[in-house]
Amino acid sequence: MPALMRALRRRGRESLMNRRALIFFTACVMLVAACGAPQPASPALSTDAAVQPAADRARTLILAMPSLPTNLDPGVATSGAENMLHRALYEGLVNFKGSSTTEVEPVLAESFEANADQSVWTFKLRRGVKFTDGADFNAEAAKMGYLRMVDIGLLGNTINRFTGGDPVNNLIVKDEYTLEWRCGFSCPNLPQALGTAYGTLFVSPKAMKAHEQVADGKSDYAQAWFANNAAGTGPYMVESIKPNEEIVFVRNPNYWRGWNDGKQRFERIIIRNVPEPSTRRQLLEKGDADIALISTVEDYKALRETGRFQGSDKPLFRINYITFTKRGVLVDPRVRQAISYAFDYDGYANNVEGGLMKRGTSPWPSGMSSAVGTRGFQYTFDLDKAKALLQEAGVPPGTELTYLYATGYGYYERMGQVLQAGLEQIGLKLKLEERDEATFNDIFYGSRPVEELPDLMGYAWWPDYDDFYNYVNPVFHTRNDQNDGLGNGALYSNAELDALIEQSKTETDPAKLKAIYERAHQILMFEDPAGLYAAEPQEEILIANSVKGHPWNPIHVKTFDFYGLYRE
């Protein structure tokens, strides 16, 4: 691939003034199912409800996105695209303040405080808040919402970490509007954990009770109903959905914050499915969309240069990386080290991705407080070192490895192409295998034994909040029934790292935590590499200048505080 190699050698020739994410990973698929009949005060998804044109375009927010999500249940759906919907329909006790990744502010909580050792937190809840089905929000509703998420299990680990595994007895309803949270250990970061929009948003207990299915004495918590219906306290409600076309939200008329604060907040939100990148650009340019995901370096730069659109200059809390499956020649860490030396990190970030990514320096994002980054071991692009390591390991020239990636995400393919070019120069072959997203997910998140997995896979991850345990546990801890290990698609396992992760779960001593971070960095980067940490992308969303109020928080990837957005 001579063109690619020329690009890798063109370091520094392109302007690096604006570094943006090229495309960001979302685990979402196209909406294909029709939905049930409308429910009072909380309309179900409709396949035939016509979307009426807005009486006033200025009060309609239009988003052009590459796909539509499939599940409205905030206790089940885990993709960034689905989370975008949840933040319009549901709320939690607190939320991150503006662009901060550490400071939170009250939402459904009116205030919160901890005891002296921060092992018990007391949340005073906001009075007068109702779900869209008329149910009251109170301490019982909050506790039931948390119990639902913990029991379902997909997102509950964010919460369950802070309950000693016993949320029933450690979440205490002190009175109608007071919830006491007992961690069982000092938990100064509990408010930050609750500030994430994953696994912390409340559904109506009335709707849950009315629509639950019970089998063998166990409730399904109305998962089937909440997949296609919404009953939350959020600012918007679902008006209609046309599968594979658009989702329409309208204002919740009884929203507790009200709509008369003088800002021109949006009456209607339309999220359109626009798979073709060029069409999304055209809609944004013509003013037929206010927000769009821009998929190419060229389009992003061209639109920013017009001065009509806003974007972010911050790296997301996310790493794009290539996983290593420890089988065959990859069992030897020297082979994984050699592969890591054969990747041109700067050439990839600065040239192949047009300067819109930052080269990776750590298994977890450099913006996180736990990041070791350049203080720890770093790879350079060193083909001689890579060749020497392969020779030491006794790897025969011409050995072929496979690299699997999902279709639709160009940066995964380009990571593979850059690595393929480097490996070719050290005597290895890399076979690139593209699969549709459903097939890729079946392999990555499935239950295949390590012997049946590809050698390498393209992947990305971001945390729910700024926390080492929250980031590392799902993707690098040995898979078991007690952790979030579905993100560990290559079945990586290292006993020492597992122990460090478990220690970090409750450790609060800064010196001990620093030692954990540095040791984990050394293991994952060099001693027993779990992956090749290629780059940190930046948000690729562009927003029309007339839309104000988006804080560009690097934790809230491709989601929006829709109530905070307004037209100016």
Descriptive report:
By secondary structure, the protein is an alpha+beta fold. Among the domains are: 242 residues, Roll (Dipeptide-binding Protein, domain 3); 102 residues, Alpha-Beta Complex (Dipeptide-binding Protein, domain 1), CATH 3.90.76. It is built from 18 helices and 24 strands. A seven-stranded mixed sheet has the order 10-11-13-1-14-22-15, with helices on one face. It has a six-stranded mixed sheet with strand order 17-21-16-20-18-19, with helices on both faces. Strand 8 and strand 9 form a beta hairpin. Helix 1 packs across helix 12. The longest helix has 18 residues. The protein is globular, with a radius of gyration of 24 Å. The protein starts with a helix and ends with a strand. The N terminus is likely disordered. It is a lipid-anchor. InterPro entries: Peptide/Ni-bd, SBP_5, SBP_5_CS, SBP_5_dom.
DSSP strand count: 24
User: Could you name the CATH homologous superfamily of one domain?
Assistant: Dipeptide-binding Protein, Domain 3
* Shape estimate: globular
**Overall average pLDDT:** 88
The CATH C-level name of one domain is: Alpha Beta
The span between the termini is: 48 Å
What oligomeric state do these chains adopt? Answer: single chain
For the largest beta-sheet, the strand count, sense and barrel status come to: 7 strands, mixed
CATH fold field value of one domain:
Dipeptide-binding Protein, domain 3
Helix content: 25-40%
